[in-house]
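Reopening: structure tokens for the alpha-D-galactopyranose complex, inputs below.
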Amino acid sequence: MNLEPLFVQTFHSASTVHASSPGRVNLIGEHTDYNEGLVLPTPIPQRCEMLFAARADDRVEIYSVQMQTQAGYALGAESAGQTWLDYAQAITQELARAGHALRGFNAVVSSDVPLGSGLSSSASFLVTVAKGLRELFNLEITDVAVAQLAQAAENGLVGARVGLMDQMACSLGKAGEALLIDFRTLEYRSIRLPETMELVIVHSGLTHSLAGHESGTRNYKTRRLECERACALLGVKSLRDLELSDLERVAALPAPFAGRARHVITENARVLETVAALEAGDLQRVGELFYASHASMSADYDVSEPEIDLIVQIARRTVGIYGARLTGGGFGGSVVMIADRGAGRIAGEAVMLEYTAQTGQSPRLLSPAV
Ligand code: GLA
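Re-run output (same inputs, fresh job):
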């Protein structure tokens, strides 16, 4: 999408910087990032795009294509208002905290990463703002630091206590590759995805929120606290300190802590197995690991929903699909599946047809892209 005509129409001058970041789908390694564990995200075709130009004063003015509205604030006066503008405010606040000199700017933003879909609409927006401002004001920030800044922004003014996976994936991810990240050391390496494989991503139609403002215990924030409690009960600093050989000890914990810890420990092992299977081009094995990961997220970690479980169940009996699992934080969102290259669209559409017939939901096929 060419945003320049809109930028000129809105701000009566040309833009000087273009920045962009993809959304991400996590292939496997869920709820492991904040437990110092392993993850394997890859970019999706949908992205956030922005144009920027500096202003002479300290105002920030942003026009959002999706919201069809312009909103603004003064640098130094950032305050949460529970709107999309909080994400920009959070970034400028963190940049200032880190000692970077900013001026005001105008921007236009457009994103086709669906909100609340488990595909990092927030992180892609945050990373795009940070990369745009880096270029606009010649700031010395590495791509990893961009990710860390975006996480600080989300943890800070936005108020969602998320881990660092999404921001790393959006800042560093490359199409056709997955990023194996170890959150104990922040070491990462690219894993080339097999040419024979196609990712199928279906948005269930159920959206979620990570901020944890909802009541009850079925939310992201509570899962993090449960992991911390499990660590305290087990006498470890992080769940990463535990291995498959510790599962017997873990099983002795009271509910729900046994399940939460078991998910994280087994999921870390599945990430490494998935990397090996991808490198060997063994889609059958990758698929088995996807199903195992989903079962663990649903039963042990309790972040799935009946509708999402149904999509995975339908995928199991759909010809051409090797494996399927809930991706992202959960409580709604999307399912990622694996198919042979060229077979993904038909298989994905078959799954959606049956899912819609059984639930009346409105799913969307997000990948393969149209
Ligand atoms: C969300 C968070 C990530 C990660 C995932 C679950 O996407 O933003 O940090 O915890 O959930 O794997």
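Residues 26, 30-31, 33-34, 162-163, 165-166, 210, 328-329 surround alpha-D-galactopyranose (CB under 6 Å). The chain is about 40% helix and 20% strand. Marking as resolved unless the reporter disagrees.
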